[in-house]
Structure formats: C-alpha cells, structure tokens
Design brief:
The chain has 233 residues and is an alpha/beta fold. Helix content is 34%, strand content 27%.
Length: 233
C-alpha cells in the first residue's frame, strides 16, 4: 500500500489581494509552494504527491517549481474546484488506488515540520483520521451574531484550532467525499466529513508556527519565523 499526499494549492488568494497565485509569491527568495513540496518530497513516509492547482497557474508552477526543483514524487497535477472541498475531491479522485493512506495538506502552510507528517501517518491504523491542531490560548466568547451580544464565556480547554496535514485511511475518506458530493454536504476541512459520517478522528498536537499564509501579514510573519530559524542554526 502507498502513502499519498494531496497538496491543496488551488485557492484564488482573494484575501491576499494579489492577482498572481499565492503559491508563486516569493518567501525569502523562493516560491511559497516550494517549501511545502520540499517537506513531502523529502519525507520517507510519502510515496506519491498529487498537486491540486488553478488551471491558469499550471504552466508557471510546472516550470518555476516542479521542473526547477525536480520533484520526482509529484506524479499527478490536477485542477482544483471553486471550493477547497471540491479541490480535495478532485485530488482524491486522481488516486486510482482504494487502499493506503492519504495526507491532505494546505499548499499555503509552508512551515510544517517532518514530524507532523510522520506522526499523523503513524496513528492512522488506530483511527479513521488524524488532525493536526493547536489548543486555543485566548478567552473564547459565544456570541449572539444577530445582536452582537456575548452569551457566555466558554471553556477554552475543550477547543482546538485545526491545521494540516490531516491524514486518513484512503478508502474511507474517498468514500465520504463521494457521499458528501452526492448529498451536497459542505465542510471547511477534511476531518469534518469523518465527524459528520461518524468516523473516529484523533488529534496530534501541531505548532503555532504552522501558519496558513492568507494575508500579506501572514507572509511577513512566516519570513520572521524562517529567518529566526536560519539565524539559530
């Protein structure tokens, strides 16, 4: 059985306010997507990478990232949909096998660490899916949105912020994605489908540094984090 990685890199970057693909934006002189692909290319646990991108970005990504870095594990490049859910579905459908493990990661999270891939894959035999996440550290309020009034302060110990990678038994996540598409079930992350259909999902402690690059402020923060790591080497 193979271990696959689906890299969801088809976002339109609306909040980034840039006409160019966010995946191609330079981060310390290197395209953002390259950092993400590096980790999966170097991982001994990953056999094959499926890259999901916007159709208009394909030529540039192939030339500037795939060919230039000789990513031999990128076996399939497919086009994303109008939502992240559709993009991941397209990535899953590009995998012909039904057995194995699939690690789904946001292309815009370039600061993941090798152990995040390894630990989530290691735990899959015990659960249906594994979610990388970090606990909330701020005070959390439950709000009546229509009136913008606080209803109560909730126990933050019970709440964690989901990250990626999220790792699953391939056959199970493919089945749930297909079912959700037929039933028009909309979710914002992959593990939510397992939760919806009764799957067993476990948490692996992530990292506050494993940020998703959504705005230009996030890009600046990533540069600071990465520069600090290079400085301390």
């Amino acid at each position: 059985m193979k271990n696959f990685a689906i890299i969801a890199a088809a976002g339109n970057g609306e909040r980034f306010c840039d006409s160019k693909s966010k995946m191609l934006v330079p981060l310390l002189g290197k395209p953002l997507l390259s950092y993400t692909l590096d980790k999966f290319e170097e991982s001994e646990k990953i056999d094959e990478i499926i890259l999901v991108i916007r159709v208009q970005d394909r030529k540039l990504i192939e030339k500037e990232i795939i060919e230039r870095n000789n990513y031999v594990k990128v076996k399939t490049i497919t086009t994303g949909g109008s939502t992240r859910q559709e993009s991941v579905y397209n990535g899953l459908m590009a995998i012909k096998e039904e057995d194995g493990i699939v690690c789904i990661h946001d292309g815009a999270r370039p600061l993941l660490k090798k152990r995040m891939i390894d630990e989530t894959i290691k735990m899959v035999p015990l659960f249906d899916g594994i979610v990388l996440a970090v606990p909330i550290v701020e005070t959390v309020k439950k709000v009546n949105i229509s009136e913008m009034l606080v209803e109560k302060t909730v126990n933050r110990d019970m709440f964690w912020i989901a990250q990626t990678p999220q790792t699953f038994r391939l056959g199970k996540i493919k089945k749930y994605y297909q079912k959700a598409m037929k039933e028009n079930i909309q979710v914002t992350d992959d593990s939510a489908l397992l939760e919806y259909y009764g799957g067993k999902v476990a948490i692996v402690h992530g990292s506050e540094e494993n940020i998703k690059i959504t705005t230009k402020v996030d890009l600046l923060l990533a540069e600071v984090i990465m520069s600090n790591h290079l400085f301390n080497k």
